[in-house]
Amino acid sequence: MLDVFIFATLNGLVTGLLLFMLASGLTLIFSMMGVLNFAHASFYMLGAYFAYSVSLYFGYWTGLIFAPIIVGVLGALVERYGLRRVHQHGHVAELVFTFGLAFLIEEAVQFFWGADTKNYQSPDLLDFPLFTLFGQEFPAYRGFMIGISISIFIGLYYVLTKSRIGIIIQAALTHPHTVSNLGHNVPLIFMCVFGVGSALAGVAGVIAGPVLTTFPGMAVVLGSIVFVIVVIGGLGSLAGAFIASILIGLLQSYAIASDVGMPDLLNLLGLEFDRNHPLTDLWTLTLPQIAPILPFLLLVLVLIFRPTGLMGKREQ
């Protein structure tokens, strides 16, 4: 049991930190601009596909450097020539615009790369076990994913809370006219923030592509979970998004690794259902079966008992 718990914890940390890489960009965009970007997971998918294409000719590491830059530039262009034009019409227009953009990007990916799964591989340099415990190997690439994710969190937290750039960016959201009068280009700041947020999603795609497979539906798989993380952590809270990501990663990992089910709970309570009872199928469920819906159940509980999220100050 100890080996199962340890590896479930490690896998949960990997999953949670991967989710944070994706959620950090969305949190940055919302906290700085007040925009909930439905197309954010699509930029994550673009990061994986651009990295795959670059890696075919120049290797994985070149893709890791250039794919996020390409995605960041695309994100900045989307803000400059699309989102900025609909911003004046309110949040509903922004949501509709980004929702449509998500479908457009998915169709574009299938048009240029096809609908099949791509053979995007992790680098040979990290193709070895980082350590062996209880006869099981922990891949070095997963350790690399953990390191990148923690570095992003520390870097973002420092820039947003300790640096002059972070102060200017946050002031541009609450007092744009004052910041503009001080000589700063507020529209350029917003464009750069959206570009950086998109680039962070691209980094997540580059890192996750070899592990979670690169296919046209990868944005849909994680898209809804990202919004769950942002809401649970608290809208605009980077630390909240980090905690929520780890919590959801561990929750799902423990659920998948366990063999506990409703029959065990019924036996513990001394209850028994007849085989012909209409709830028979419900009471035969196991934790691994309901693992995908656990983040959404957690979301409901958080919204009931703490509507602002774990570390948020805004009402959802």
Topology of helices and strands:
Elements: H1 2-33, H2 40-58, H3 60-87, H4 91-113, E1 129-133, E2 136-139, H5 140-161, H6 164-174, H7 176-181, H8 186-212, H9 218-233, H10 238-257, H11 262-269, H12 287-290, H13 294-305
Antiparallel strand pairs: 1-2
Helix pairs in contact: 1-5, 1-8, 1-9, 1-10, 2-3, 2-4, 2-8, 2-9, 3-4, 3-8, 5-6, 9-10, 9-13
Describe, in plain words, how this protein is organized in 3D.
With 316 residues, this protein is mainly α. The chain has one domain. It has 13 helices and two strands. It has a two-stranded antiparallel ribbon with strand order 1-2. α2 (40-58) packs parallel to α4 (91-113). It is globular. The two termini are 39 Å apart. The relative contact order is 0.18.
- Helix content, binned percent: over 70%
Question: Please, what is the average pLDDT?
Answer: 85
- SSE string, helices as H and strands as E: HHHHEEHHHHHHHHH
Number of domains: 1
The Rg value, from CA coordinates, equals: 21 Å
Q: Which regions have little confidence, pLDDT < 50, spanning 5+ residues?
A: none
Q: What is the number of E strands?
A: 2
Strand order of the biggest β-sheet: 1-2
Shape category: globular
Largest sheet: 2 strands, antiparallel
H/I helix tally: 13
User: What proportion of the residues form beta strands (DSSP E)?
Assistant: under 5%
Annotation keywords:
single chain, 316 residues, globular, mainly alpha, two-stranded antiparallel ribbon
